[in-house]
Every structure is written in structure tokens, then in C-alpha cells.
Write a structure and sequence with these properties.
The chain is about 55% helix and about 10% strand. It is mainly alpha-helical. Catalyzes the attachment of tryptophan to tRNA(Trp).
Length: about 325
């Protein structure tokens, strides 16, 4: 039997190259391997837990959907949908709220961190984010969840909830494992001590100055890479240089990797040449992606129809799971 995998991404706008290498590329590979039932969704309800503007939320959702589709997510091979269009997520999330202690939720690291970042806008959704995430996952009874290391605590809570529910109401959910491949963290070009982020590293800098967005045009990729920090003492790679070599490992040819690695060892490397090479390789790699994304965004109805179709597929499974849960916990169903 095929294993089931579930993963989602917040509706937070354009994706950058770190999102692609760390998650999206893996999703496409899993989908194409054909040995998993894949459910990929856009977590637009989770996006409500931090400050947002309605028009931006709508546009960000379309942007993320276009990125997924342009990068190779195939609705015929994977179930791709919008979280808010499958309301079973919310219903099961509420049930899990009632099975989770306040102390468990307050101990979540992300709640602590985001509470500090958004002191004036801390809301109940931020606190119960992990129980909704558990519902997102367990509705489809997966065996594994591809997540970054910053989400492993939430998956552990999901496993705990599955175990708690099973012990109290009878075997219902599997305890999904965290599906982690080799850790991959692309750092900011402008501050290589921080993870690449579309929100920017310096409040005074332009938004996303340290991030290579997937749809950046070639000239913008070159401009950003030229400004990438590379300070080094020549004895070893600085964080900025290591970051550029990590990108080279993923987008450069074998000859290019060998050439610049040897130059690095001999201390004859010209970082301007490395940056220009990287810019060309990355721009070329995402050439078809940029074209397809533009076509998709020019026809938003196509994107919306794809999401609606995916939601209908997801709901067939989600409704079965929720019906089973309601029966086991004693909620009356329609005759």
C-alpha cells in the first residue's frame, strides 16, 4: 500500500529559493515518485494568526498556488487544495482544542517566539495554531509529514494527540512520523547568519533584499547576488561564501563546482565570477518556471478552479475521518 504524506505552506506570498530547495522541490519529487498519496495544501487559515490585509491575503494565496503549480505540483498526481475550502479542518481542530491542555499549547516554542514579535496582536488563533495543524495532518491519516526542523515540535504534539485520542476513544489515527531529509538551510544574501526570508533581514532595507524569489527576473537575480556578503579570511569559507557554494552545489554544473572549489582552496577565487555564474545558472533553471507562473497569474480563474477541484478530492477523505471521529466521541449525526 502507498504511504500517505501531508504537508502545507502558509499563504504568505511569493516563495524564495530556500522554500524551493527546502520543501517544494521535495514535494515535487515525492509526487513524481508515485509511491505516496500526497496531500499538499495552502494554509490560508493559519495566515490569519498574524497581522494581514484582506487584499494581500487573496493575492498571496494566488501567488503561492501559482508557485506550486509552476514548480511542478501536478493536480493529477497529488491532491492540491486550499485549507479554508475544506471545513473539516476547522471542525477537527476544535475537537483537538478540547483535548489539549492550555499548558501544552503555551509551551510551544513558536507561540512563545511569535508572541514576542507580535505583542500587540497576540490572538487565540496563534495559541491554537498547533491543534489546527494537527487536524490538517490527521484528517488524511498520513504515515509521514515533511516539515522543517522548526515544525518538529508541532508534529510531536500531533503524535501525542493521535495517541491520546486512540487511547480514549479507540484506534482511529496513525502516529505520523516527521519526514526529514538532510537538513537544508539557505541563508540570507544580505545577512548570512540568518535564514533566507522574504520579509527582509533589515527593516531599513527593501523587502526581500536578502532573498532570491523564484520569479525574480535574471537581472534582479544578478543584482542581488552581486550584493551578497562574502567577507572571508581566506583560510576558510565565511558564512556568506558557504551559502554561495551551497547554491552552486544545487544549480552549478560539475565542472563549475570543481572549478570554484579548486580556486577556493588555492585562494585564487574571484567572487564576482562565482556570483555571475550563479546568477546565470539560477536564472536559467527557473526560466520555464517564470513563464508558467506568469501564464497562471494572468488566468487566476484557472488557479481557483484547480484549488476547488483539489478541495473536493480532499473533502471526500476528510469527511470520512471527521464522521468517524464524531461517532466515536458521541456527537449526534443526522439520521
Amino acid at each position: 500500500m502507498k504511504e500517505t504524506i501531508v504537508s502545507g505552506i502558509r499563504a504568505s506570498g511569493r516563495l524564495h529559493i530556500g522554500n524551493y530547495l527546502g520543501a517544494l522541490k521535495q514535494f515535487v519529487d515525492l509526487q513524481n515518485a508515485g509511491d505516496h498519496n500526497c496531500y499538499f495544501f495552502i494554509a490560508d487559515l493559519h495566515a490569519l494568526t498574524t497581522p494581514f490585509e484582506p487584499k494581500e491575503l487573496s493575492q498571496n494565496t494566488l501567488e503561492v498556488a501559482a508557485d506550486y503549480l509552476a514548480a511542478g505540483i501536478d493536480p493529477d498526481k497529488a491532491t492540491f487544495f486550499l485549507q479554508s475550502q475544506v471545513m473539516e479542518h476547522v471542525e477537527l481542530g476544535w475537537i483537538f482544542n478540547c483535548l489539549t491542555s492550555l499548558g501544552e499549547l503555551q509551551r510551544m516554542t513558536q507561540f512563545k517566539d511569535k508572541s514576542k514579535q507580535h505583542r500587540e496582536t497576540i490572538n487565540g488563533g496563534l495559541l491554537t495554531y498547533p491543534t489546527l495543524m494537527a487536524a490538517d495532518i490527521l484528517l488524511y491519516k498520513p504515515t509521514a509529514v515533511p516539515v522543517g526542523d522548526d515544525q518538529t515540535q508541532h508534529v510531536e504534539l500531533t503524535r501525542d494527540l493521535a495517541r491520546k485520542f486512540n487511547n480514549r476513544f479507540g484506534q482511529t489515527f496513525p502516529e505520523p512520523k516527521t519526514f526529514l531529509r538532510k537538513p537544508l538551510r539557505i541563508m540570507s544574501l544580505s545577512d548570512p547568519m540568518k535564514k533566507m526570508s522574504k520579509t527582509g533581514d533589515d527593516p531599513s532595507a527593501p523587502l526581500g533584499a536578502g532573498a532570491l524569489m523564484l520569479d525574480d527576473p535574471p537581472e534582479e537575480i544578478l543584482r542581488k547576488l552581486k550584493k551578497a556578503l562574502t567577507a572571508t579570511d581566506a583560510k576558510e569559507k565565511s558564512p556568506g561564501v558557504a551559502n554561495l557554494f551551497l547554491l552552486l552545489d544545487h544549480f552549478g554544473t560539475k565542472d563549475q563546482i570543481k572549478q570554484f572549489s579548486e580556486q577556493q582552496k588555492k585562494n585564487t577565487i574571484k567572487y564576482s565570477e562565482l556570483k555571475e555564474t550563479l546568477a546565470h545558472q539560477i536564472a536559467d533553471h527557473f526560466g520555464k518556471f517564470r513563464t508558467k507562473k506568469t501564464q497562471l497569474l494572468n488566468n487566476p480563474t484557472q488557479i481557483k478552479n484547480t484549488l476547488v477541484t483539489g478541495a473536493a478530492k480532499a473533502q471526500k477523505i476528510a469527511s470520512q475521518t471527521l464522521s468517524e471521529v464524531k461517532q466515536k466521541i458521541g456527537l449526534l449525526r443526522s439520521p
